[in-house]
Design a protein that fits this description.
D-Maltodextrin-Binding Protein, domain 2; Arc Repressor Mutant, subunit A; 3 domains; five-stranded mixed sheet; 295 residues; 12 strands; single chain; globular; alpha/beta; three-stranded antiparallel sheet
Length: 295
């Protein structure tokens, strides 16, 4: 496996087109095809599903995408390090999460961390929920931001809670249910629903969504692949959503009401150890401080 193979794979996964990938890399299309086939043979896995009309990543391809990005990043940083040895050793911190919403809480802790570590090079990865723990388990990231897993699933690390967040019903002002305060789940059963993709959602959130499905007709259900997509569909008037308050953006067009009888979710960080990693230790301290101030 070499960096050219990885570059070909990343170009095809980004464009989903072998010809455009070849143009981007300034090589011929047969060269790209050959590199992808060689990579698939080495991995003993099919990375792309190809027809005469389309190209898409297979499940194995989606898994390998994060590995390929990581390897290319490491290779580029190694090259830069030897190009300019006087620049000093890079101080890396890899943070994983499953939604772009979580990234918005990182800028201030990272800014303060960089004051203590001027050579800090953060690497932020947003990956589907099912892949998140794999990144931590295989030590591709130092820490992940996530909702706490229930006892049925053992997460590969130490959990540090940052905050409790209630489950809320999200609607537009035009679609808001009558009354104020908490809502009973029963009050939502006659309304159209916008749901997050259960394959990409934390299990406790997916379970809550499953309770709401009931006997609804398919035409009453809409799905978004991310919290941002769900909110967009809600604002477009397709239905209401149920999600953790933490994922709902501050927006004057939206009405958020807590759900009665539903336990708040714990949101925090998973990491393997703080021993021998002062950068991670300080990052955890800064994140706790920030969320403590919010509380």
């Amino acid at each position: 496996m070499n960096t050219f193979q990885l570059a070909c794979f990343l170009a095809v996964s980004d464009t989903l087109n072998f010809a455009r990938a070849a143009q981007r890399l300034n090589v011929t299309q047969p060269a790209v095809t050959h590199q992808i086939r060689s990579l698939e043979e080495e991995l003993n896995a099919k990375l792309f599903r190809r027809t005469t009309r389309s190209v898409e990543l297979t499940e194995a391809g989606r898994l390998f995408l994060h590995d390929a990005n990581g390897m290319m990043t490491i290779a580029m940083r190694a090259k830069k390090r030897f190009e300019d040895p006087a620049a000093g050793e890079l101080c890396e911190l890899a943070v994983g999460c499953h939604g772009y919403t979580h990234l918005f809480s990182l800028h201030e802790p990272l800014r303060q961390l960089a004051e203590s570590y001027p050579n800090l090079h953060p690497r932020l990865q947003v990956v589907p929920y099912d892949f998140l723990y794999r990144l931590l388990e295989e030590e591709h990231v130092d820490v992940i931001l996530s909702f706490q897993e229930n006892e049925a699933k053992k997460a590969p690390g130490i959990y540090a809670e940052l905050e409790k967040t209630p489950m809320v019903c999200v609607t537009t002002r035009q679609q808001a249910l009558e009354g104020e305060g908490e809502l009973e789940l029963e009050q939502l059963r006659e309304r159209r629903l916008v749901l997050g993709d259960p394959r990409k959602a934390p299990r406790n959130i997916a379970q809550m969504q499953a309770q709401l499905l009931g006997e609804r007709a398919p035409g009453e259900l809409f799905f978004g692949e991310s919290p941002e997509a769900v909110i967009t569909l809600v604002k477009a008037g397709f239905g209401l959503a149920v999600m953790p308050r933490l994922l709902a953006p501050p927006d004057p067009e939206l009405v958020l009401r807590p759900l009665a009888g539903v336990e708040p979710l714990s949101f925090g960080m998973y990491y393997k150890t703080l021993k021998g990693n002062p950068v991670l230790r300080r990052f955890v301290e800064l994140m706790r401080l920030q969320h403590g101030e919010k509380a």
